[in-house]
Amino acid sequence: MKPLSQCRIAIVGLGLMGGSLAGALRAHCRDVTGVARRPETVEDALRFGLIDHGTTNPEDALPHADVVILATPVRTIIRQIREFAPMLGEGCLLMDLGSTKQEIIAAMEELPRRIQPLGGHPMCGKEVAGIAEADPVLYRGCTFILVPLERTSAAALALGQTLVEAVGSSPLVLDGERQDRLVATLSHLPYLLACSLVQTADASTSNDPAAWEIVAGGYRDTSRVAGSDVTMMMDILITNRRAVLDATETFQRKLAALVDLLEAEDEAGLKAALAAGRAERRRMFP
Amino acid sequence: MKPLSQCRIAIVGLGLMGGSLAGALRAHCRDVTGVARRPETVEDALRFGLIDHGTTNPEDALPHADVVILATPVRTIIRQIREFAPMLGEGCLLMDLGSTKQEIIAAMEELPRRIQPLGGHPMCGKEVAGIAEADPVLYRGCTFILVPLERTSAAALALGQTLVEAVGSSPLVLDGERQDRLVATLSHLPYLLACSLVQTADASTSNDPAAWEIVAGGYRDTSRVAGSDVTMMMDILITNRRAVLDATETFQRKLAALVDLLEAEDEAGLKAALAAGRAERRRMFP
């Protein structure tokens, strides 16, 4: 594997995540080529200084790349792994930024042996989408999960870790099943809660004009991720369905228990439950 | 009623909310006296420059006050309304900062006629408590709900509005039933969701050390209010029980509908529901 500074990197998908990563990587590699479906997106990425070269045709970019990063929705990544495999050169490191990993890893297993696959999932983002929102500092200070396959070489994993550190993230190596289970609770469940909360407000209070003036910080924070890109979230929920349903079922039991305590006016029980939650929150975010 | 600049103001309860309000009001009135149960709290408030005078004895402060503001948990406010009534002078404006209003208003109805009562609920706060966290800018830019009673004079309401504007908040006049129903959905329900989410993580992922490294922004935001002061939240939930249970029931139905769509892999239905939630979130926070 070449050192990162000599690598030619191709990033497929120039949305918020791909565009931001491109901008962050430019200073650390030989060059970054952006691949997008729409010519306007390529033009924007060039104009914003996020890429060195850009194209709408993967065949122009992928054969020369030392590192290819797929920054599209999860099910598009799975399709592109198969579609792009014939275009990738000997020893090419193929990474992705998908939020669920088991189905992507399964697709990567089928790649020709000359390709080095490495699953990736940066734990950052914003509830906005598109190249216009891209920001090279987005990856600074976040955890970036890496999921190597059995077949991934130590050198390929090391290059992936160097790349992650170059953009300011901290690499965390996990297996696919464990990562999918963790993010089901810590990321995908909060999304479903935010959506349900927004729908609750829509059904009950949002026909009252005063609601708009008093939307409290609690509501704003708890509903924030409901603004996430729907196509991206659909792929995440569908490809992590079982783990998301399990986490949601646990949540529903916990909420129902609080409701029972409040319904019964069991003050001692309710207070103990809320205090335990508060202590746990403080343990997580001291 | 005297103009605000000539008023002597007493604030009972020098926690985050009372201490911050005291600090914000000092520049706009004759003087601010803080009343707290513990002498250390009074000393801290004096040392931080949040009050002009301080005492642990309400009888030292309340008889001279033109405005008295109760900044304690809701059920303490209800008790103090009855306990302090004999100490309040002719024409005294009695306000509170409690998050639920119907039970407080009912207690205010019983006050002697010489007292002018006005319910208040500032839509600001932090998930920390205590005088050490007090900050005079806390009230800037927030909506401050005011709930006048039938018996409240126009002059008393006007003084309350002037006071609210002086600390940088925007007054919003509502009746108690409507305010309690709105905040049940927009503030108290998000709190129950945050607590349940933290308990879900505690039950499933938080025994995995990797969970701490990947707690995503979605989880951090959605769980934030779980760190709120438990005594304060207990009083809120108990005194707004029916409205909170109604809002929670609506939420449970909305979440169950999303679960059903995901369980059935009904992609068109799930996507439509998520897109509607996203549009509503964006309508609320453009």
Characterise the protein shown here.
With 286 residues, chain A is of the alpha/beta class. The first copy, chain A, folds into two domains: 4-174, Rossmann fold; 179-284, 6-phosphogluconate dehydrogenase C-terminal like domain (6-phosphogluconate dehydrogenase C-terminal fold, Orthogonal Bundle). Chain A has twelve helices and eight strands. Chain A has helices spanning 16-25, 39-47, 58-61, 74-84, 102-109, 154-166, 176-204, 209-214, 217-223, 230-239, 241-263, 267-284, and strands at 8-12, 31-35, 53-55, 67-70, 93-96, 116-122, 143-148, 170-173. Chain A has an eight-stranded mixed beta sheet, with helices on both faces. In chain A, helix 4 links the parallel strand 4 and strand 5 (93-96). In chain A, helix 7 crosses helix 11 (241-263). Chain A is elongated. Chains A and B meet through helix 7, helix 8, helix 9, helix 10 and helix 11 of A and helix 7, helix 8, helix 9, helix 10 and helix 11 of B.
